[in-house]
Write a structure and sequence with these properties.
Blueprint lengths: L1 H49 L5 H22 L6 H12 L3 H12 L10 H30 L1 E10 L6 E4 L16 E3 L4 E3 L2 H8 L7 E6 L5 E6 L9 E16 L1 H4 L9 E5 L5 E5 L5 E7 L18 E9 L16 E2 L5 E19 L2 E9 L2 H14 L3 H14 L3 H19 L4 E4 L3 E12 L2 H28 L4 H7 L2 H9 L25 E7 L2 E7 L8 E2 L2
Antiparallel strand pairs: 1-16, 2-15, 3-4, 5-6, 6-7, 7-13, 7-16, 8-9, 10-11, 11-13, 12-13, 13-14, 17-18, 18-19
Helix pairs in contact: 1-2, 1-5, 1-11, 1-12, 3-5, 4-5, 5-11, 6-10, 8-10, 9-10
C-alpha cells in the first residue's frame, strides 16, 4: 500500500505549492507596479526640468525601458516562480511518483550548471516531499518484507472445558462389597468342577488387548517403578481430549528364589519337586512346553495359603514355579545364573516370590501422555476381585506363559526374568478382572483444538508499525497544510498543475482562460465540438507539435 500512498501525498503537497506560486506572483506584481510608478515619476520630473517643448516620445521610451528593467529585475529576484524546466520537474513528480522521478531530481541537483537559477520554494518543497515520501514508502516495503520473512506458521492449541463420560473406571454395583476372594456374583461363578468368569467377553478382550473400552497400560515413575493400570485405548474419540481420571492399578515386585525351593536331586526326567522354606511345596511337570503353578499367601510369614474363606490382605504375596521352553532349550546367558535351573529335558525352570499391591489410581493425561499420577492402597473388595479372578480361573495363565517364554530368551539374568514376570502378572491380573469395572465420567476434562497461526517476531512488527505510523503522520500533516492553503484560487491553480491542464493551455485555441469546474472542461471535445488537432510538423532541424483546425481558414497554434 505504501507506493499507492505516495501519489496522494504529493497531491496534498501541490496545494501549498500552488499557494506559494500565487504569493510569488502577487509579490512580483506589487514590485513591478512600484517600479513602474517610480520610473514614471522620475522621468516626468526630468522632462519638466528640461522643458515642456522637448519631444515626449523619448521620455516615454525611457520610462518604458526603466519599467521593463525594474520588472525584469524584480522577476529575477523572486524565487517563488519556477523556471519552465523546474515546472516540468514538478509536473513529472506529480504525474509519476516513482524512483525515476527521484532520479531526475537527484541528477538535477548534482549536474546543473554553476550559473543555473536557484531552487524555487515550490520545487524545493515538492522534491523534499518526494524524497521523504519515497524513503518512508521504501521503509514500509522493507519492514514489511522483513516482517513476512521472519513470520512463521505455528500450531496454537485452544482449550475449553468439556464432559468426558467414559474416561474413568469404577466398580460395578455388584462388586462393591466382595468379602472373600472366592465370593461369586461379581466376576466368579463357582461350579462343581470348575470356576467360571461371569463376564468372559470383557476379560478376554482386555487379555487380548482388543477392547475398545479400555486397555491395560503402564506408568513408570521417576525411580523406574512400574505400575500397571486400566486406561483408555488411543483412538480418534479421545485424541483431542485432556482429562483427569480415576482407575485401578497393580504394582508387583518379584525376586528369584529357585535355590530356596528346588535342589538338583529333586529334578527328574518328567518334572521336578519343589519344597520351599516357607509354605509352598509340590511337583511341576517339565514335559509340557510351558507350565506354571502359583500359590497365594494370606499372611506376611508365607505360611498360610488358604485363600478361599478370607479377605486377602493388600499387598498380598504369592509364589510362582515356572517351567518354559521345554522344546526350545534355554538362553546361554542364564546357564550360570544362580536363580535359574533346568529340567532334564531342557526346559528353563525357576521359582519366584512376588508381592502385589492393588491401587486406587488417579492420573492426568495431556495430549495422550500421562503427566502426573497419584495412588493409594485399594480396599479389600478390589483386592479380592483382582487376586481371586486370576487365582481361581487361571484364564490369564496362557498369556503369562507365552510372554514369559519370550522374556526368558531376551533376558540375561534371573532378576531380569523376575522383573519382567512381575509386569506381565500385573497386566494379566488386572485384565482378567475386567468384568468388574465399568466406565465412569472423568474427574475433569478439556477439549483441545489446534489451529495454524502466524508467529510474529516483535522487532519486525514494531518496525513495520513505526514505518506506517510515520507515513500516516506525514499524510496528516500534509492534509492540514493542504486545508490551510486552500483559499481563494489555490484550488484552481492546483488543478492546473497537471499534464492535462498544460496540454489544454497550449493546444486548445478557443479556451478563454476563465475558471472551469473540471480540467476536462478546458477541452473543446468535451463540449461536443471537434476542436483543434495536434500534429507533428517538420521544422528545419527536427519536429514540433502544433495544434491546427482542419478548416482552411484556421490558423495553427504552435506549442511553445
Amino acid at each position: 500500500m505504501a507506493p499507492l500512498v505516495l501519489p496522494f501525498i504529493l497531491t496534498l503537497v501541490s496545494f501549498p505549492v500552488a499557494r506559494m506560486m500565487i504569493r510569488a506572483n502577487e509579490v512580483s506584481t506589487q514590485d513591478s507596479n512600484e517600479a513602474s510608478n517610480g520610473a514614471s515619476n522620475e522621468t516626468g520630473n526630468e522632462a519638466t526640468i528640461e522643458g515642456r517643448n522637448e519631444v515626449h516620445v523619448g521620455a516615454g521610451n525611457q520610462a518604458t525601458n526603466q519599467v521593463s528593467n525594474s520588472c525584469g529585475k524584480g522577476d529575477g529576484d523572486q524565487g517563488g516562480q519556477p523556471t519552465p524546466y523546474q515546472l516540468a520537474l514538478m509536473l513529472r513528480i506529480l504525474s509519476n511518483a516513482s524512483l525515476s522521478s527521484v532520479w531526475r531530481c537527484i541528477t538535477y541537483v548534482f549536474s546543473r550548471p554553476k550559473k543555473r537559477v536557484p531552487f524555487t520554494p515550490p520545487l524545493t518543497v515538492m522534491m523534499w516531499m518526494l524524497i521523504i515520501g519515497s524513503v518512508l514508502s521504501t521503509l514500509v516495503f522493507a519492514t514489511d518484507t522483513w516482517f513476512h520473512l521472519t513470520m512463521k506458521t505455528v500450531s496454537l492449541t485452544q482449550l475449553e472445558p468439556t464432559i468426558f463420560n467414559n474416561a474413568s473406571f469404577g466398580l460395578s454395583t455388584n462388586c462393591t462389597n466382595v468379602a472373600h476372594s472366592f465370593d461369586g456374583g461379581c466376576t466368579l461363578n463357582p461350579a462343581a468342577t470348575a470356576t467360571f468368569v461371569m463376564d468372559g467377553e470383557t476379560s478376554l478382550s482386555l487379555l487380548a488387548n482388543i477392547s475398545s473400552a479400555g486397555i491395560v497400560q503402564q506408568i513408570v515413575d521417576g525411580i523406574g517403578s512400574k505400575t500397571t493400570y486400566l486406561g483408555l485405548p488411543p483412538n480418534s474419540f479421545n485424541a483431542d481430549k485432556d482429562y483427569t481420571a480415576m482407575s485401578f492399578g497393580v504394582s508387583t515386585q518379584c525376586a528369584p528364589i529357585t535355590a530356596r525351593c528346588i535342589s538338583d536331586n529333586d529334578i527328574s526326567g518328567p518334572g521336578a519337586k519343589y519344597n520351599c522354606d516357607f509354605g509352598m511345596e509340590g511337583y511341576i511337570s517339565t514335559t509340557d512346553t510351558n507350565s506354571m503353578i502359583m500359590t497365594y499367601f494370606t499372611d506376611m510369614n508365607l505360611s498360610d495359603n488358604t485363600t478361599g474363606t478370607i479377605s486377602m490382605p493388600n499387598p498380598y504375596s504369592f509364589g510362582a514355579v515356572v517351567s518354559v521352553n521345554q522344546n526350545l532349550g534355554w538362553h546361554r546367558d542364564l546357564i550360570e545364573s544362580p536363580g535359574i535351573t533346568t529340567g532334564l529335558h531342557g526346559s528353563t525352570l525357576f521359582v519366584l516370590l512376588c508381592n502385589a499391591t492393588v491401587l486406587d489410581l488417579k492420573y492426568t493425561s495431556i495430549n495422550g501422555t500421562i503427566t502426573s499420577s497419584w495412588s493409594q492402597t485399594s480396599n479389600s473388595s478390589t483386592t479380592n476381585i483382582i487376586m481371586g479372578t486370576q487365582g481361581y480361573t487361571k484364564i490369564g495363565d496362557p498369556y503369562i506363559l507365552q510372554r514369559t517364554s519370550l522374556d526368558v530368551w531376551q533376558s540375561h539374568t534371573a532378576q531380569e526374568v523376575a522383573d519382567k514376570f512381575a509386569v506381565i502378572y500385573s497386566q494379566i491380573a488386572l485384565a482378567a478382572a475386567g468384568g468388574a469395572f465399568i466406565p465412569m465420567p472423568a474427574v475433569e476434562a478439556q477439549l483441545r483444538s489446534s489451529i495454524l497461526v502466524a508467529k510474529v517476531p516483535k522487532a519486525p512488527l514494531a518496525c513495520l508499525l513505526l514505518a506506517n505510523l510515520l507515513l500516516v503522520l506525514l499524510g496528516i500533516i500534509l492534509t492540514i497544510f493542504a486545508f490551510l492553503a486552500l483559499t481563494g484560487d489555490v484550488g484552481d491553480l492546483q488543478a492546473r498543475l497537471s499534464i492535462d491542464a498544460l496540454v489544454a493551455a497550449h493546444f486548445e485555441t478557443n479556451w478563454d482562460g476563465n475558471n472551469v469546474g473540471h480540467i476536462d472542461d478546458m477541452f473543446e471535445e468535451r463540449k461536443g465540438s471537434d476542436g483543434p488537432r495536434v500534429r507533428a510538423e517538420r521544422i528545419y532541424r527536427g519536429w514540433r507539435l502544433a495544434s491546427y483546425f482542419r478548416r482552411p481558414s484556421s490558423s495553427s497554434h504552435l506549442l511553445g
